[in-house]
Amino acid sequence: MEAKVKRIGVLTSGGDAPGMNAAIRAVVRTAVNLGIECVGIRRGWNGLIHSDFIPMNSDSVSHILDQGGTILYTARSEEFMTPQGREKALATCKLLGLDGIIAIGGDGTFHGALELSRLGIPVVGIPATIDNDLGCSNYTIGFDTACNTAVSCIDKLRDTMQSHERCSLVEVMGRRAGYLALYVGIAVGATAVLIPERGLNFQRDVVERIQESRIAGNTHYMIVVAEGAGSAVEIGKQIHQSLDIEPRVTVLGHIQRGGSPTVRDRETASRMGYAAVQAMAAGNGSCVIGTQQGSLEAIPIEKALTMTKKLQMERYAVMEAMHNHA
After folding, report:
1. Burial class (CB in 10 A: 0-12, 13-18, 19+), 244
2. Which of 117, 189, 195, 291 qualifies as a FRET site for 26, CA 20 to 30 Å off?
3. Per-residue pLDDT for 173 more than 60?
4. Which residues make Cβ contacts (< 8 Å) with residue 121, sequence separation at least 6?
5. Half-sphere exposure of 97 (CA within 13 A, CB side)
6. Does the reported pTM lie above 0.90?
């Protein structure tokens, strides 16, 4: 039987995440294996509006598995959030003869995917964000690499800070979620971790933790701050005023988005890309490929966007228990 799906587009949107290229590669190669043509749409939904596309085949995704970033580039698109912008995007889909689109990104990407699918173009979403904050997937592409990058930076910082009685504050990404901060905090043996899910109590979460650590004989204190929990610079000033310890603040910023993806991100991205094309070919468009209890599931986009997940606070207890107490 001839496949109904003959040509699909693939794009990356929103903040970039290591492993996006592995997902693009998996989408293109799975499509080729199924006899489906694949078109790369550059610069996310913006590229769909402005017909910024390139034909893709197996050769065009050679040697990208280990590269960070995204060969299709990414952008946020204000225009796509308007009905007029979406109509232009729909016109491009018709012009290119696309039977569907695979969209790799986060929450904003999936909201765009839902709007386009309502106009009759099936879209399958692949979750990729270093924040790991999508309710529809236990794991999102890029998280493991971002954690490893942050840990590597903090390990280097600790080497230079050990010789002084100082407090290092490291601000990591995570505007709405503390996954990155908490995983990294456990991995580096942080004195304290500040996350948006737990309202900041400066005395309890910072002062008492440093005092306990000091009594235990430590002279260097490491505090990991998720950007959504507060400004590391401001918290550093408070520490200086309250404890008369010299703070050193490092904001890791966009370095966390870069780097060659880890095994976990390459493998997850490859499986998700494969599953996304299989879902599209089977006529199951307008879904998100999420990990649930270790296996991949195709979840309808409407449902995926309403799903939430809670940070497992037992990890916070682990972090506290691991630190030296008097």
Report:
1. exposed
2. 117
3. yes
4. 90, 93, 98, 100, 101
5. 8
6. yes
Cβ-based neighbours of 74, under 8 Å, separated by 6 or more? 12, 13, 14, 15, 16, 20, 43, 44, 105
pLDDT higher than threshold 50 for residue 168:
yes
Q: Alpha helix (H) ranges present in 137-290? A: 143-161, 179-188, 202, 208-215, 232-243, 263-281
**Picking from 19-23, 136-140, 312-316, which range would have the lowest pLDDT averaged per residue?**
312-316
Per-residue pLDDT band at 1 (split at 50, 70, 90): very low
Q: In which band, very low, low, confident or very high, does the pLDDT at 325 lie, cut at 50, 70 and 90?
A: low
* Residues in CB range of 149: below 8 A, 6 or more apart: 252, 255, 256, 258, 259
Distance between the two ends of the chain, CA-based, in angstroms?
71
pLDDT in tens, 39-55: 999 999 999 999 999 99
φ, ψ for residue 281 (rounded to 5)?
Answer: -65, -30
What per-residue confidence (pLDDT) applies to 324?
57
Q: How far is CA 37 from CA 115, 272, 312, in A?
A: 24, 19, 42
Amino acid letter, residue 71: I
For tokens 């010299």, the residue is 246
Which of 16, 52, 99, 131 is an active site residue?
A: 131
Residue 193: what are its φ and ψ, rounded to 5°? -130, 130
Cα–Cα dist 57/206, whole Å = 53
Residues 207, 85: Cα–Cα separation, whole Å: 51
Q: Band of the pLDDT at 151, cuts 50, 70, 90?
A: very high
Which of 113, 21, 128 is closest to 72 using CA atoms? Answer: 21
The residue among 110, 102, 101 whose CA lies nearest residue 137 is 110
Going along the chain from its start, the domains and CATH numbers come out as 7-142+261-306 (3.40.50.450), 146-257 (3.40.50.460)
pLDDT of amino acid 197: 84
* Model confidence pLDDT, tens digit, residues 296-314: 999 999 999 999 888 777 7
Annotated catalytic, 131? yes
